[in-house]
Design a protein that fits this description.
This protein has a four-stranded antiparallel beta sheet. Helix 9 packs antiparallel against helix 11. By secondary structure, the protein is mostly helical. The protein is built from 16 helices and four strands. The N and C termini lie far apart (57 Å).
Amino acid sequence: MRGTLEVSIRDIIQKASSSLLVDSNSDHKVGYRDDVMSSPMDEASIMSSSPHRDILGQYNLATPYSTDEGSIYDGCVDGAEPTVTQTPHSLKIDIQDNQIILASKACFAREGFSHALVVFTVCGIVINTLSTYLDYLVRGDYYDEEANNDNANNNEEYGKVSNASKYVAIIGALFQVIIMVSSVVIGAFTDKFRSYFVVTLVLLVFGAFALAECGVSLDEDRGGDVRWSLLAVSALIGPLLPVATELGVEMAYPLSENTVLVIMQLFCNATSALFIPLFQAVRDVGVSAVADNADADGEDDGAQNVLGNGRPPYTFSFYLMILLCAVSAVYFATFDGKYLRYEAEQAKKRDDKSISTGPSL
């Protein structure tokens, strides 16, 4: 059974018709219409002149990343992307029930895609987790929650805004703004020089150190150092999300960006939903091991030797995030994928140049 989405808008059909047309029974690419002529054709001209049409007058719109390079399609799975079918008065999109499974198979068939997926997932876990518990980390409520709750209630009674609330608002806003700005800057640099591997590996390593600094700054004697450490994490880990996405698109070519991003977001959100409660569950590991694990006779049961004692809350939670970044960096160091989209772009440029210059005598 398939789901069908039908849009009966003539303007959309005309724009789609003038962009790219392929035979529904062939993988051959006709090409962009502006590659063939300087001005777009109207619908009637397309219907009458194009040989790539079935007996019902239907067209299949190919992905913009279609190419005649046979090696590009090696390992692709049929039906990995929805089928778009155009008729004179409608546009149909056929989505299979197992569309996600087929798209996943097509992505994982590409060498290097799993590396990009691991980086994207780990960075998504870090950003989602810190965003969830940013209020607690910035306020420092984990030291004496009862006292902080009493102060908050008193401030609400007198209509005052506590300094902690102001810090949460400022640091929370800066946390997101820094992620966006650093993503734009580092993303532009990475796209320009195609240095996905180096940039990703460097940011992962420094991001792990920034998380370690967050764990150290949780100490009550460090004051508000954890706030600045969180901003450093946002600047180093945040840009890895768009960089890993672009790397995944390079590896999974000719699949579209939307398909690749859906697979990455699916894995990232699923693992984040599992890790966020775990981050909270282990917050007190090693905080008061001796007091909580004494025998009935009042003697230490040895937990201090295993878990330690007197560490700030959330220290062990940050250990887990540091471990995730370290493992992902080691795994990403084994990256062996190919930039398939870049190779296809270079091949198209060579073909265009050879056509414009003509045959050499």
